[in-house]
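Closing statement on the oxa(dethia)-CoA sub-project.
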Amino acid sequence: MTKVYAAITAVNGYVPDYVLTNHELETMVETNDEWILSRTGIKERRIQKGDGLATSDLAVPAVQGLLKKRGINAEEIDLIIFCTTTPDMFFPATAIVLANKIGAVNAWGYDLNAACSGFLFGLQTGAQFIEAGKHKKVLVVGGDKMSSIINYNDRTTCIIFGDGCGAALLEPNTEGFGIIDSVLKSDGTGGAHLYQKAGGSLHPPTHQTIDNKEHYLHQEGQAVFKFAVTNMANVAAEVMENNNLVADDVAWLVPHQANKRIIDATANRCGITPNKVMINIERFGNTTNGTIPLCLWELEGKLKKGDNLILAAFGGGFTWGAMYLKWAY
Ligand code: UT7
């Protein structure tokens, strides 16, 4: 029997208009452009401004653009997996909110939370439904309104994160294109270093949790950096080795955009030269679940059918992983 692969058949992205530059951050916290750029590679990030707007509103234009590109309408989508760490609300799932906003009346859906590795976890999860023959069109969305959980008085985190969303459509492919393999991992001991403490069932919101600023993202940067820089690199190398790929076989490395130094270390470990590494961190910062689909969206014009791509991510949890896919169009 011919093997069915889950192939990405369209990608699209959306970032809000407002540009928060390093220079503006200099007026908000004690920092400077040189420090941010040299330590992270970030020059600016996008912020969703305006009342009544949430993560799903970043997804609507991303997905509507994707449907237009692919020439299909929302009724044709079977399943929406919304990878996010900043859902519109705890429930209903943002996937369902999105389905309603775009008119995906025949889709079921759910949210997936694996922090910055979410989009990779979502792609692999969505692929199962395609490979099993259960569904023909699975929409995997990765997006976050990180500004909703960032403390703009905390210089160690507010310089890093931004808002944005990307989406990919998975469809069956019997010609050997699509998601070939992945290595996905998690380690709960990392939870102590990157988290949002309050708001869940462990620490429901109280005046005290608000006074203590426990609804904001908390990150111990160095501890996360040390783990990320080794593990994201190792897992990318592992998926290449498992599939007998050497650097020359890889057309593009598409890494999570958390820190330019982590990206460079991953590329070095895999022997992939800088001209084959997708980077947009300088313009968008770390959009958590949005980074990889936003990269694919910006890279789309350069991709050729049959290109070997290595996707790699690292995030809170800890979660991390890498994926090997053969571009299908
Ligand atoms: O995407 C999810 C996973 N997250 C990541 O992968 C992020 C991993 N971590 C990182 O990217 C880096 O650790 C950071 C960018 C967060 C921080 O960079 P660092 O090189 O690890 O800096 P550091 O925390 O070691 O701080 C060095 C110094 C400290 O001052 P002292 O103690 O040496 O006097 C900080 O207080 O830099 C200071 N500092 C700042 N200075 C200017 C920290 N933040 C800033 C700032 N501007 N914004």
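The chain has a mean pLDDT of 98. With this model delivered, the sub-project is considered complete and its resources will be redirected to Aim 3.
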